[in-house]
Amino acid sequence: MSLLGIRDAAVKIGLYTISGRLTIDELSSATLPCILHWNQNHFVILYKVKKGQKFYIADPGKGLITYTMDEFKQHWIETGQGEDEKGIAMFLEPTQAFYDNTNEHETRTEKPFKFLFGYIKQYRKYFFQIILGLLVGSLLQLALPFLTQNIVDIGIKNKDISFIWLILIGQLVITLSRTSVDFIRRWLLLHISMRINISLVSDFFIKLLQLPMSFFDTKLMGDLMQRIGDHSRVNSFLTQQTLNVAFSLISFAVFGCVLLVYNRLIFLIFLIGSILYGGWMALFLRRRKVIDYELFEQQAINNNKTYKICGILAYWTLCYC
């Protein structure tokens, strides 16, 4: 997609556009939002500038991200040095035709993660069995503290060896049952994850082959290969991380009930600690998201350089060997 293509599309829906090269000072004082040429390979939207030091970007591939002045320059500036540093920006203003088009066409909003859960839907029977296994494992785990308590309060206190052996055998049976349930659950997860991974990669190639040749002119080979490699992360999210979160919530509820029965003060400390832990993790999610995108870009660049080196070595081998 080019700036001219965006301009033609904007005019078609009733937007007046003006484009040019601007300095950061000119951009900060301009009316926002506007479209920026980003990293010389795609376009983003600048929707807010805070005190000329923080720039709020809406990136189609990354979401809402905040950049400092130096980070913003690295991505946007294309020409010049010092005060003459400039980048390309496009400003849009709605006309009456835009509002007429808005009234004629209804906006459709797609549900997030809808396409991902489409892969889960066809294996819902297996996921039901896995969730059932999680519940059974949690219930078995719930019985262990009470059995241990009975060993101390009844068996040791009354010196009843037969009762202690009975409880120990019961704990052994529960442990073996949990191990069996966990084995079946992991086997089902392996079965599902392999099939989902194959479906993800095949759908990616189908989508890739339907794209026009102009798409590959702006994409690095390393970027495409990195996206193929990242399908394992999507697969892990669907088959492992989601279930781990569900298991953690179930365990939290189970042990919370146990602590509430034993001592409310300990339960309150446990609850406050869990909330603080969750808040601490959520505090860095946005920053981790930005770092993850930056890591993806760097890995894509490194992969592309690796492929170029391999291509040069292969060419050199064919020519001189």
Helix share, percent? over 70%
Low-confidence stretches: none
* Helix-strand string: HEHEEEEHEHHHHHHHHH
Distance between the termini: 42 Å
Count of individual beta strands? 6
β-sheet strand percentage: 5-15%
Biggest sheet features: 6 strands, antiparallel
Our count of helices gives: 12
- Indicate the structural class: alpha+beta
Strand order of the largest sheet: 1-6-2-3-4-5
Form type: elongated
Gyration radius, in Å: 29 Å
Summarize model confidence as the mean pLDDT.
79
Domain ABC transmembrane type-1: 130-300
Membrane topology: Multi-pass membrane protein
Subcellular location: Cell membrane
Keywords: Hydrolase, Membrane, Transmembrane, Transmembrane helix
Please, could you describe this protein's structure?
Helix content is 71%, strand content 13%. By secondary structure, it is an alpha+beta fold. A hairpin with a 3-residue loop joins strand 3 (42-50) and strand 4. Helix 6 packs antiparallel against helix 7 (161-209) and helix 7 packs antiparallel against helix 10 (231-262). The longest helix has 49 residues, at 161-209. The two termini are 42 Å apart. The mean pLDDT is 79. One of its GO terms (biological process) is proteolysis.
